[in-house]
Amino acid sequence: MKFLRHVFVMAALALYILIPRIEAVKADGPTQELINSICIESEDYELCNKIIHKNLKAPATNLKDLTYIIFSIAIEHASDTYIFIGNILRELTDHEERVGFNICLNVYSEETAIFLDVRNEFRHKDYERMILDISSTIEILKNCRVDFGIPPYMENPLIEKNRVMKILINMSTVSGRMVKNGNASLLSSLVSGLDSFFFQYLTN
Ligand SMILES: *[C@@H]1O[C@H](CO)[C@@H](O)[C@H](O)[C@H]1NC(C)=O
Ligand SMILES: *[C@@H]1O[C@H](CO)[C@@H](O)[C@H](O)[C@H]1NC(C)=O
């Protein structure tokens, strides 16, 4: 009896700790506008909006924090899918299916690595390379072909994984570009400021 009570208390405690973290944070007005401007371009607005809200840490989140969140979600989805494919591969015996899934395994390994780079480039404000790297991920994803089914799944489970990855790449491109363009004016004024500094230096 004592043991059961112990289990009950532990379960209640676990729920108590977990529930506040499961609840989605509600975005404030300007943050929701930002989210809208990212998701409006998405082929699945609802999913885009839901994914962001699930990972939002505060009601007021600026573009840079949103972009960081989106890159982190992309990393998580890519690495989760990599593990998912690894688990499927362990049970597959058919040669052709194995070849197909191995290609996808490599694709998601690359997607994970590139998005880790993207997040680093973002941290270092290397926006040019960041945008280039993001656009390379959409080409790489195309190599993971999913036009075959596998038992016990009726449909290839990677169809949905790829769809979500594509949407995350799209979201990354849109918010990444917004960050880059939002800072382009700052960057150019800095450059022209330097130019005039050197001009003065040379003419003096
Ligand atoms: C995002 O996806 C939409 C819908 O598929 C597409 O029209 C748009 O061009 C994409 N944007 C980018 C930056 O890839
Ligand atoms: C551009 O960079 C500045 C300084 O690093 C930053 O404060 C600002 O939020 C950035 N703009 C956008 C749109 O992210």
Short description:
By secondary structure, the chain is an all-alpha fold.
What does the average pLDDT come to?
A: 84
By CATH, the architecture is named: Up-down Bundle
Give the CATH level 1 class.
Answer: Mainly Alpha
CATH topology grouping: Butyryl-CoA Dehydrogenase, subunit A, domain 3
In total, the number of domains comes to 1
The geometry reads as globular
Report helical residue fraction. over 70%
Number of separate strands = 0
Strand residues, percent: under 5%
Organism: Microthlaspi erraticum
GO molecular function: pectinesterase inhibitor activity
Keywords: Disulfide bond, Signal
Pfam family, one: PMEI
Please explain how this structure is put together.
The chain has 204 residues and is mainly alpha-helical. It has a single domain, classed as Invertase/pectin methylesterase inhibitor family protein (Butyryl-CoA Dehydrogenase, subunit A, domain 3). 79% of the residues lie in helices and 0% in strands. The protein has seven helices and no strands. The chain has helices at residues 2-22, 29-39, 45-55, 63-91, 95-123, 127-141, 158-203. Helix 4 runs antiparallel to helix 5. Bound molecules: 2-acetamido-2-deoxy-beta-D-glucopyranose (NAG) (2 copies). One 2-acetamido-2-deoxy-beta-D-glucopyranose binds at residues 63-64, 179, 182-183, 186. Keywords: Disulfide bond, Signal. Residues 30-175 form the Pectinesterase inhibitor domain. GO terms for molecular function: pectinesterase inhibitor activity.
